[in-house]
Amino acid sequence: MDLTRSTAATISYLASLPAPASLPANGRVQPTETTQFLLDVLLTAYKREDDCDYHLIIDDTAGNMMIVEVPDPACVDSTSLFATEIAHARAQFDARLVATTSWKMPSPPIPILVQGVGFFDFLHGQTGAAPNGIELHPVTDITFDPPPCGDVSGDRLVNIGDALLVAQFDVGLRQCGLTPFSHPVVGDVNGDGACNIGDALRIAQCDVGAGQLRIHLCAVYLSIHDVHHVGNNHNHDDLNDDDGSAE
Ligand SMILES: [Ca+2]
Ligand SMILES: [Ca+2]
């Protein structure tokens, strides 16, 4: 599987996927368990499990929650496909929070962009589990307090400066991931999987009060040096779509 790509999703979408009739003890069920997803959510609770994984409960503020797991790199085989990403995500978490064997519930919940690989767990009464047992496991990247949708410059303001950066990117004068185009993840404000003049115009419209950005439209991941279409889940809700319709 390609860990440089991820698919923007929502908890409600993932929770709507039918769990496989039987879960293999080893191996991953395609396509969900071989897909890296990106969720724009709130972190509501976390703890360190006995197996040293961090068990995180995430919430979409619409009544849906699910579990994402941040494994312990010490317990991961160095030959694992995910070894580098697991160590990275664990370090990101540890830099911000301290997980212990007691539940901690941040108040208010913390906005996060969390990326990880789909995984259907056996339902055994886990706190925070989705009805179908879907998790992100392992988590491969976690960004706390992500910049607002449209804020590609990272100054937490969405204005004409961001529109100009996106326009410069569109004509090849800027590269994703390089300062000040530091937050390409929030550049695709219309959620079509590309970062281009359409997004620049949308941001400019918002700056003059002629449009509005919906925060979840930005949950399309652009890898550091690449821009690509990352699949779609538009038929499940309109969070990633741009036409405003409830499909
Ligand atoms: Ca900005
Ligand atoms: Ca776009």
CATH topology of the largest domain: OB fold (Dihydrolipoamide Acetyltransferase, E2P)
Domain tally: 2
- The SSE string, one letter per element, is EHEEEHEEHH
How big a fraction of the residues is strand? 15-25%
Helix content: 10-25%
- Total count of helical runs of at least 4 residues: 4
Computed over alpha carbons, the radius of gyration is 18 Å
Describe the structure.
The chain has 247 residues and is of the alpha/beta class. It has two domains: 138 residues, Beta Barrel (OB fold (Dihydrolipoamide Acetyltransferase, E2P)); 48 residues, no CATH class. Helix content is 17%, strand content 20%. It has four helices and six strands, in the order βαβββαββαα. Strands 2-3-4-6-5 form a five-stranded mixed beta barrel. α3 runs antiparallel to α4. The longest helix is centred in the middle third of the chain and has 14 residues. The radius of gyration is 18 Å and the shape is elongated. The C terminus is likely disordered. One calcium ion binds next to α3.
Write the layout of secondary structure elements.
Layout: E1 7-8, H1 11-16, E2 36-48, E3 54-59, E4 65-70, H2 83-96, E5 110-120, E6 134-144, H3 160-170, H4 197-207
Parallel strand pairs: 1-2, 4-6
Antiparallel strand pairs: 2-3, 2-5, 3-4, 5-6
